[in-house]
Amino acid sequence: MALLCQHDVVLFIANMRSAGKKQHYVLVLMETLFQHLPLPYRVGLLYDIGCQTERSCVKWGFLDRYIERLTFGISVFHAFGHQWVCQIIYHPRKRMGFGLSDGEGCERFWHSISRLIAYLRVCGYHQHLYTLDRQVDHAQSKILENLGAWLLRRSRHAFAKRKAAEDVLRECGKVEADLRAEWKAQVKTQTKLLLRQSWNAGKDAVKELIQLRETRDGLKKRQRDYDTLIEAENTPADEYIEAKTELESVCLRLRELTAKIRDKQFALGVADRVRLEKLLNDPFLAARMNALALKQRLRDRLRSRKFELDRLERSFRKQVNDQKVDAHTASSVRSREPAIVKVACSYNTLCATMEQLIIKGKALRGAICPKQLELKGIFDLDVDDTIWEDIGLEEGMLAAPPPWLADEDMRAGIKALLERDRCVEEEVRLRHKCRSMRVWLSEEWCIVNWHLVQ
Question: What is residue 322's predicted lDDT score, i.e. its pLDDT?
């Protein structure tokens, strides 16, 4: 396993003595790298499973001395094999700081020495290491010789992509602040925890509503006590001021709690005067809550699938590498389709159970059975599909699909905005590299002239 810089120069190589990419190899490589870096330096790591590596570092304290200076990401080619929730956080085109780096330098290096495979299989251990060391040294010298051409090529590439992104931003007609707000809302929505099925889902929801009502009653009592204290003529000045201040806080909490209770009652389909204790073991309520959880999970998976397929739907002229990424993406999406169909079938089964409970009179008065989903065309995810309707599951106002999902101009603008941000990061980094190269060349020129004079 090798650790390379952005220029595809090999920094360190770990000799793997066991099958598979064990996690300790990458941890040792990062530990070695940080021991050679100044304290203020920050590092961005693009790795095939950077998401799992960061989770291990946070959970078990690996690299705890450097974790604040380390940003994890997933290499571009491998990112499309991860779920969309993972891509939206760790994809280098969506995460700040990575510019236009793709993280595939290690793959390019292995490809450049692939012609040595047959020879290295039969040579001795020490000759094996010597050959790899010489090959790494040769590759590094060639990269340094062509570093100026590399900078020019990357600068032109970043400029062209930024120009294209700015053209899309102008055509979409959206304000940048709105695009950033919608992107933030999209990340928040698509990374939140999904509801899960449970036999006690209805009971837990009722218990939570009972506790909220009890808290509301306590706040109302405190509000009445403060009102009485303020209206009394013989109240001391200090107690009057304190009661006035506390009353404002209590009123604010009471309004927030009342709105929360109203939303919970809408979700359960009950009125404010209903005795909730009678609903603790209601089978219809349990089926209803589980159906809502399944539908939200199904909706989220279909959204993720739609965003993953965007790359394929926008593909026209592709290079060989892009075609491989597209094929990898399509394969990953197809592998997850059976799980989506299974969730839809489970949801339809719960809908049928709710319909039978309504017929037998075991449901809430006025309860409506939600519509079953048509499995044919479920992946189309049209704006008028039944998947968006929560009739019979939530009694509140039906929310329209958010702009980041339903508005094509908004979606195109968000993609272009993220692309432009990465291009700006890349151009800033390239300008810094150009300055460093000029300083180095100036120093080398001065040394040569000094030796000529001597």
Answer: 61
